[in-house]
């Protein structure tokens, strides 16, 4: 086995510095070091790398070159959500995997590996270029997998076992009709036409199957979106008889007594009234959800506008300072008299302090404004949730009232049946002596009634608890996000101030040394 090396932070920093030197890029270097999250591309070819690792902080990476290494497994790429180009050619990879989160990927190069199956790429919907040349792909049918990529522009499959088959080019052209380039050569219309004729029957069946699958996916997506909407509105399964059915489920009284003709009509009326109340709550829930969503969307729109406004003001302040600072530095470099130089340096330091004070004041003003609008949002959402909970409480109270009425009516029916001849009653009412008539039935009715009320209470508690929890989570999440933003901004101001201070100190020292030399 080849020894190779493992990726770590030390290697990555070394590569980044080499890359910056080659490209003459200095912007990646900050006063506090290299920020991995700001690196746009990374070239790690010809490094004898054996395992992909330590890339979780490279969230802005758009291009990654790991070709010509000793990599055996595709892994460690989950955090690279902005990656658009990935080169893993000339490695020892046997299986396509570990690409699930690279949903922005446009170019994938896996040429010159040991791959035998095209698979596990379902989420890469934006792919335009796929290179899997010189691998171990042996079945032309596997190419059908690539039909799912509607933006696919060019494919290179040259050098695989199936590329030696006589109908290789026509098969690819038929099954990937929108392809423009195959193995770095244009697919002309004549080839596409002949391919379409040759495989027309099989293609027809595949297209029909794909259409059915697409329709099924659309139905499933619509269903999932509807379920999510109902969950977000806290009224899932209230648009029908779900609560009523839950109340009567596994109820021995219902199984026995509800078969009586006297009870059947009563039960139907009870169900109809319960469903009507649940539908009322369901519709109210959806309406209130839309109102809350509009309030939240309005908040985030206003918040983003405020942050953008303050960022623009800060940028203007910094730009004005930078221009003046540049002039001041040029003036300082022309001075040779120590006392005057000291005065000018102190003046520059004072300007730096004023800049930091202005930026801090601007940030604190934004923080106060954000606190106010967050409190307003919380107050408005609290009112909405409170009103909705109150409405829900009233409707569930009506449900309990219906259950009480139903229970009382059942009690009346049972009391009436007591006056019927014992022999007839015993034969009609009981199934194989499943229930003892009399006090035992009354006790069972009471237990059934309590269970029904418990199911209603549980659903009410679930709704109100989730609504209150959502409101608390929303506010807390917004506050924590704003706190992180403010802390990061203040940290940036301090780092910028330190950077300016070091610039002045270095300039002062350089001028001082030059003066002593002369």
Please characterize this protein's 3D structure.
With about 525 residues, the protein is mainly α. It has 2 domains: about 5-200, Leucine-rich repeat, LRR (right-handed beta-alpha superhelix), CATH 3.80.10; about 240-420 and about 450-515, no CATH class. The chain has 10 helices and 12 strands. It has helices at about 10-25, 170-175, 190-200, 200-230, 240-250, 250-255, 260-335, 340-415, 420-430, 440-515; strands spanning about 5, 30, 35, 40-45, 50, 65, 85, 105-110, 130, 155, 180, 185. Helix 2 (about 170-175) crosses helix 3 (about 190-200), helix 5 packs across helix 10 and helix 7 packs antiparallel against helix 8 (about 340-415). It is flat and about 115 Å long.
Summarize the structure.
The chain is mainly α and about 525 residues long.
Keywords:
12 strands; Leucine-rich repeat, LRR (right-handed beta-alpha superhelix); 518 residues; flat; single chain; 10 helices; mainly alpha
Topology (elements, then pairings):
Blueprint: E1 5-6, H1 9-23, E2 29-30, E3 33-34, E4 41-43, E5 49-51, E6 63-65, E7 85-87, E8 107-109, E9 129-131, E10 154-156, H2 168-175, E11 181-182, E12 185-186, H3 189-198, H4 200-232, H5 242-248, H6 252-257, H7 261-333, H8 338-417, H9 422-429, H10 439-517
Parallel strand pairs: 1-5, 4-6, 6-7, 7-8, 8-9, 9-10, 10-11
Antiparallel strand pairs: 2-3, 11-12
Helix pairs in contact: 2-3, 5-10, 7-8, 8-10
